[in-house]
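forwarding from the other thread:

> can someone predict this with glycinamide ribonucleotide?

sure thing
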Amino acid sequence: MLNLGVLISGKGSNLQAIIDACEREKIPARVAVVISNNPESYGLERAKNHKIPAVILNSKDFSNKNTYELEIVKNLKQYDVGLVCLAGYMRIVGTVLLEHYPSKIVNIHPSLLPSFPGLHAQKQALDHGVTVTGCTVHFVNEGCDTGPIIIQSAVPVKEKDTEETLSERILQQEHHIYPLAIEFIAKGKLKIEGRRVKIA
Ligand code: GAR
């Protein structure tokens, strides 16, 4: 059984999709701990509803990124976490986390990377005028949304889409592909070869 540590900042709908997939025993994994950098995150409630330990670690309470991430690592180790899942975690991962969990941190991003990395990916897609966007699950490296890609799902952009309607349709796909990517990892099916991720 793989122990997951899920890092969040917001409403936590991806966290919920992961919890549900684990509870349905679709994934040989369990969410061992949820860590939020935002005390107001609704994801903290979701964790509580499922009796999952939830920790608030606000980067503002630490003198620098390294001490902040060392505290995250301490909590992850306490729960014997083997895979760190960023689920709407709105901070760039630094060297401390990366060094403690090499190739063991994954992220979901609401665009077809490498298009539209960083913040407001859905708005970036609308502003650019693309007709297809989507979402990406990828391994995390030192860059911003630049790690090897595990799964992507395409979402057509409709003429009347607003940032909200497009985000909602992308989110539905996120809830499918994130648990699936975690399932592949938990079952030992993924091999990273350079930039490519092979699924056995
Ligand atoms: C999701 O759309 C996720 O892809 C995005 O934030 C949202 C979080 O929703 N993440 C990023 O933009 C990371 N750069 P959730 O809190 O309901 O899972």
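The mean pLDDT is 97. thats all i got for now
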